[in-house]
Amino acid sequence: MKLELIEYVKVNLPAGFLPYSIYSIIIEEKEVGRIILREGSDQECYYDGHIGYHIDEEYRGHHYAVQACLLLKEVIDKDHLLITCDPTNIASIKTIEKLGCEYLETKIIPQHLKKLFASDECEKMIYRWNITS
């Protein structure tokens, strides 16, 4: 597996968005998904997390999101990141647990941030991933 940087987005961002990098997750020269690394402090990324990932449906079940997160460690310059997920997203919870993340809490998304999330997203499980451990 390898990650290929597709784009670094830092200008013309919508209000409330922080700069971020989009990587393609590549297995045997095929893109199987994408992973995003967001810049910002824990406070700024508390509800959406520093990392977001998506594995295309036909490639799910192979722990590619876990492997991609581990590869992403090579470009992370912090000792920890936040990863969040919807409480109903069992696959993402399993990924987060496989990474050994520490569960912090489940919080309702504040009303002033709702516009940054899908309309059906109401709360987030918030985890801390200690990069150096």
UniProtKB/TrEMBL annotation:
InterPro entries: Acyl_CoA_acyltransferase, GNAT_dom. It comes from the Bacteria. GO terms for molecular function: acyltransferase activity, transferring groups other than amino-acyl groups. Coiled coil: none annotated. Residues 23-101 form the N-acetyltransferase domain. It holds the Pfam family Acetyltransf_3. This is N-acetyltransferase domain-containing protein. It comes from Coprobacillus cateniformis. The lineage of its organism: Bacteria, Bacillati, Bacillota, Erysipelotrichia, Erysipelotrichales.
